[in-house]
Here is the input.
Amino acid sequence: MKMPKKRETRVVNITNLKTRSGMDDEPVRISGYAAVFNSKTTISDWFTEEIEPGAFSRSISENDIRGLFNHNWDHVLGRTKSGTLQLSEDDHGLKFEIELPNTSTARDLAESMERGDIDQCSFGFYPTVDTWNYDVEPAHRILNEVELFEISVVSIPAYDDTEASVVRSKEISLNVEKRLKIMKKINETLEGIKL
Here is the structure.
């Protein structure tokens, strides 16, 4: 049974975060890594996950992606279509640079980041190609390719930031639990046949 695509989010520390104050009416820019490749993360105590290098490449070349504050679509900080959000992949991960708008949200965010109060990022995506290993506990998932639709600078490092996300993560956990039970039964049956 094929499950419908669900939006997922991940929260990571922004590595190599930099803010550049605007000089001579230049806009303030923030940059860092919104995701890190080959870094194992535990998701909902049910499975571990890592992102394969290249997982974002198709999406960032084809899609119009937004940079948000706290996943709030009312607080757009930048956009790839307008050139105010730049995304690229390197050996380390998904690198971003946002040219902040001259809005109260962006000015407050820059101030909080310069103080060190906000230093984490999240990204929202649809998994398009993933590989699961159910032979290990907990199960392990590799995101081979994702459809990225937003990155967010976030103030609270929570995996599930909305009720809809909680429902989504429970659905993923139930799917993993069912597959683990099936794999266990298959392994038990195979061991019985070998005797």
User: Anything to note?
Assistant: The CA atoms of residues 46 and 176 lie 7 Å apart. The chain has one domain: 8-194. The mean pLDDT is 79. Residues 8-194 form one domain.
